[in-house]
Specification:
By secondary structure, this protein is mainly alpha-helical. The protein has one domain. Helix content is 83%, strand content 0%. The chain starts with a helix and ends with a helix. About 4% of the residues have low confidence.
Length: 124
């Protein structure tokens, strides 16, 4: 029993470390490029690739939110903390809307494009 618990703990630690090493920094430029790609795919009616790109965008948003949350925790002053909290709030609001809009890409194309631009604007 102890061996199984130890094996599970080691496996979990390995997976967590692997995920941390696999993360890349999401930039405003990379996010905007991916949003533009999504818009182009929707316009072309390429829903299979659009859905894959939408998943990548969702992953990028989650990473950006995690990075910003870490900035809030590590902020050395209250002013910087307030700045990051404001930014995080804007990102969360945009993310909530975008998540719902990703469910029906063709119908939500226009509002999705606007909200992806809002999310990008909230990034560093």
């Amino acid at each position: 029993m102890k061996r199984i618990l130890l094996a599970c703990s080691i496996l979990a630690a390995t997976l967590i470390a692997g995920q941390a090493n696999a993360q890349t920094t999401v930039t405003k430029a990379s996010f905007t490029a991916k949003a533009n790609l999504l818009d182009t795919q929707i316009a072309a009616g390429d829903m299979d690739n659009a859905k894959a790109t939408a998943k990548q965008i969702n992953d990028m948003m989650m990473e950006a939110l995690a990075i910003n949350k870490e900035h809030v925790r590590a902020a050395p002053t209250d002013v910087e903390k307030a700045k990051y909290m404001d930014q995080h709030g804007k990102e969360v609001d945009a993310n909530r809307d975008i998540f719902q809009e990703l469910k029906d890409l063709p119908t939500n194309r226009t509002i999705l494009r606007e909200n992806l631009a809002k999310f990008a604007a909230a990034m560093d």
